[in-house]
Amino acid sequence: MAVVTGGAGGIGRAVTAALADAGHRVVSVDRTAGADPTAHAALVADLGDPGAVTTLFRRIEEEHGLPGTLVNNAGVYEARDFLDYTPQDYRRVLDVNVGAAFFATQALARALIAAGRPGSVVNVASISGQSGSPDTAYGASKGAVIALTLSLGRSLAPHGIRVNAVAPGLIDTPMAARIPGRRAAEYRERIPLGRFGAAGEVASAIRYLTGAGADYITASVLDVNGGLR
């Protein structure tokens, strides 16, 4: 069984469908409705609250069983100049983009270790976490997701829990539609493959990382960016 956070978004829906096609029962979690119809269950939770994350995973285990796979896809993005951020803006981005992945992975790892079971976690990072971003809090949060992946991939490996990440570039989703038009056009011109990616292409990479073919991969980041640097 797999849990996909941010399951109502463009990438989340594609990941849900891809994992369902691979044979998983998928529990989709988002703060709004809109899960892909292939989801086994759709739950509503605000993952920016660590207490809500703990409660959520307890409920999932009680109602649906212990997951073996977690995709940390929940995220928020605001196109905002660095000088315009408020403490509340900054905190929300970090709490959702990093905190949700941290505490969801912690909740699952505790349960898997107690049960003596292996598992797989995939975090959705971003090219912004590798090269920086004009949207500074978002870029910083995704850089933290990459560092979290590398750290957890190593620390949880002795327990048989693999932790990897994908780092998408520009993906054609409602979130990407909020990138200012001129900047989006400039990005497109720099992509060697000449186009934005599709959510399904990110989902395919995640399906691979969660599958048996990736059993020897952990603490790794897989770029899905059309060659953009």
Short description:
The protein is an alpha/beta fold and 229 residues long. Helix content is 45%, strand content 15%. It has helices at 10-21, 50-64, 87-115, 128-131, 136-155, 181-190, 199-210; strands at 2-5, 26-30, 41-44, 69-72, 119-124, 161-168, 221-224.
How is this fold's topology laid out?
Elements: E1 2-5, H1 10-21, E2 26-30, E3 41-44, H2 50-64, E4 69-72, H3 87-115, E5 119-124, H4 128-131, H5 136-155, E6 161-168, H6 181-190, H7 199-210, E7 221-224
Parallel strand pairs: 1-2, 1-4, 2-3, 4-5, 5-6, 6-7
Organism: Streptomyces griseoloalbus
Pfam families: adh_short_C2 (PF13561)
Domain Ketoreductase: 2-169
